[in-house]
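[agent] plan:
  1. take the single chain provided in the ticket
  2. run structure prediction with default settings
  3. attach structure tokens to the ticket
  4. add a short note for the reviewer (M.T.)
[agent] executing step 1
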Amino acid sequence: MTGFTKFGSVVLPMLIAFAVVWLIGPHMIRFLKARKAQQTERDDGPKSHLGKTGTPNMGGLMILAGLLAGSLVMAPAHPEVIPVLILTVGFGIVGFADDFIKSAKKRSDGLSVKQKMAFQVAIALIYAWYVTHIHQIPLSMKVPFASGMVLDFGRVGNVLLFLFVAVATVNGTNFTDGVDGLSSSVTTAVALFFTVAALLTGSGTASAGAAMIGALLGFLLYNCHPAQIFMGDTGSLALGGFVVGMAYMMQLPLFIPIVGFIYMLEVISVIIQVLYFKKTHGKRFFRMAPIHHHFELGGWSETRVTTTFTVITMILCAAGLTALWW
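[agent] step 2 finished; step 3 output follows
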């Protein structure tokens, strides 16, 4: 692949995805408002968030539209984007079902935990079969800071670990979506890491990564504080699918805890909060979990939370690129 071809394989899908999201944004916001697909905030959350009730939800549809438009244009030349789309769109559909139920029932809960888990596992297994049988890419994992070292736990072990990584990452991106622009900004940095990694390793998934960057940048025009629209589970679950999809296509799932540290931190904060609450019979370790709410209740503005978490992610993504060739 020539330098110009590499350049075009990322710039074109990024621009297409950005343009699609930017153009459909106002129409999508009006459409969702008219259908009363609106956010329902928890009463026990930060009081500043109560004013968000009524803000259009399901904005993840915009992200998916941009991603599909940018990626499918490149699919004939770079078929590696297809499995990434399978996992991203598949998880996005699960999120859409969850959002739709919340909107229809006017409540904060949609699909049950068991239902979400079952759908996610089924979609993940489809992706695993496609990657290993169509693209002949094993589910083994490259080790960070150990160039050439690969962990392989056998067919069954790799699949089980893959399912764990998929579910854990999706929960992480889901928990990260709680402050204006937070999940969009953090994942833009993560998508940039995987896009650069794909370019440097010659993976065709670079086009999907670039399309996601464009889609998220377009979405941030409407999702930055004060947000005009939220991505909802449609978007947050799709982002988790994207991160896992990109990682496994390049055998980089062990890099997710590095570049996706914020996702991991959000999940761990919830686990600690729940366990501590049960252990102490009602006391809280954090002011509120996920941890971004802890900082909000400590006086941080939403903009400060988003900026700080994004900067941390950018630094760790640089470390991730170093770990790839160390």
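[agent] step 4 note for reviewer: The longest strand covers residues 141-142.
[agent] ticket updated
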